[in-house]
Amino acid sequence: xxxxxxxxxxxxxxxxxxxxxxxxxxxxxxxxxxxxxxxxxxxxxxxxxxxxxxxxxxxxxxxxxxxxxxxxxxxxxxxxxxxxxxxxxxxxxxxxxxxxxxxxxxxxxxxxxxxxxxxxxxxxxxxxxxxxxxxxxxxxxxxxxxxxxxxxxxxxxxxxxxxxxxxxxxxxxxxxxxxxxxxxxxxxxxxxxxxxxxxxxxxxxxxxxxxxxxxxxxxxxxxxxxxxxxxxxxxxxxxxxxxxxxxxxxxxxxxxxxxxxxxxxxxxxxxxxxxxxxxxxxxxxxxxxxxxxxxxxxxxxxxxx
Length: 305
Hints:
Layout: H1 8-20, H2 23-30, H3 34-48, E1 53-56, E2 59-62, H4 64-89, E3 97-101, H5 103-120, E4 126-130, E5 144-149, E6 156-169, E7 183-185, E8 193-194, H6 200-208, E9 211-213, E10 220-221, H7 224-232, E11 238-241, H8 246-251, E12 262-273, H9 280-304
Parallel strand pairs: 3-4, 3-5, 7-9, 8-10
Antiparallel strand pairs: 1-2, 5-12, 6-11, 6-12
Helix pairs in contact: 1-2, 1-3, 1-4, 2-3
């Protein structure tokens, strides 16, 4: 017998209209006309013999039957999409190695090194995600995360990779006088600030054993990626974690006007979920990552000398 299955076009129109609660937005989502969405949903209602949407004034409202149907249809479409992606990739997404890190650390420290790992493990599909908040390791799909903190996360095992080190950087044409100074006069220094970590300047000053006068002003940027870009553009001096500016320091795009890195009380850790850490791929990644961290520590120590 032929399956009692509506057309894919009708199901996609229904799911999009229900998600947006608007036929016009659904049409934009599906790259068809609004009348096309309306026609597909009308055909679906005729096939099912139930009303899916009603108009209440200018608002579109789902019926009770539509709400129940939507949950099942969405689940089915998700499964079809997953199966299709798995077919294209030749591997189940559930078998991928899910690695999570802070966005800037992922782009500036981890990603440049991943080529080495992928070359050693060509059969492993890495699914790299990012986060700016703590992860709930009791309910997560993440296999391994690189997080900054003091080593304690619920439902997870953590291993220290390297201490966090801060550096003051600026563009070469903005390097202030290198004469020794005991007090930094911020009224005469163009400074940049990280809105997501507003204590960076004070943390660096404390670690460097320097006093300061004047207000720490200057433009504020929402995250480190923009802060590094601003420093490269010559907008001012910025305090950033050392791993974020490896390439700029190597090429000379940024310089260290006040000397080498200063350690903070936090570290970067490899954090693995208690219920996922035993997978072979996760173990191989952990071993590789510790090797990369060791090389980075040696390089960092060399810069500090």
